[in-house]
Amino acid sequence: MKKGLGMNELINTAATPKDTGIPQRGAAQRRVKVERRSDQMSVRMKPSTRERIEALAEVEGVPIAEIVERAIAAYTADA
């Protein structure tokens, strides 16, 4: 008489799938919200403050937004 196979003999629970870098169906996918550089904000300030920001940006060769971002980071680090 022929002996049948049990599930324990068919499945190797110690083996793991090969990581292909492609998420498999049903795998939890975490969506990371990417910051966009196209967001805009209008800010009212004294013309002298704007001139100082523009001058700093020109000297450093960076966009005005980067100067403002650095200032906010420095402000929040001190708080």
Question: How would you describe this protein?
Answer:
The chain is mainly α. The N and C termini lie far apart (81 Å). The mean pLDDT is 81. It has a domain at 44-79. The chain contains three helices and no strands. The chain has helices spanning 7-10, 47-60, 64-78. The radius of gyration is 29 Å and the shape is rod-shaped. Helix 2 (47-60) packs across helix 3 (64-78).
Structural class: mainly alpha
Proportion of residues in extended strands: under 5%
Global geometry? rod-shaped
The main β sheet shows up as: none
What is the overall number of helices? 3
SSE series: HHH
> Helix content range of the residues, please?
40-55%
What oligomeric assembly is this protein in? Answer: single chain
The tally of strands reads 0
Extract low-pLDDT stretches: none
Rg, rounded, reads 29 Å
Q: What is the average of the pLDDT values? A: 81
| Straight-line N-to-C gap | 81 Å
Comma- or semicolon-separated keywords:
single chain, 3 helices, mainly alpha, 79 residues
Task: Write the topology of this structure.
Blueprint: H1 7-10, H2 47-60, H3 64-78
Helix pairs in contact: 2-3
Describe this structure in a few short sentences:
This protein is mainly α and 79 residues long.
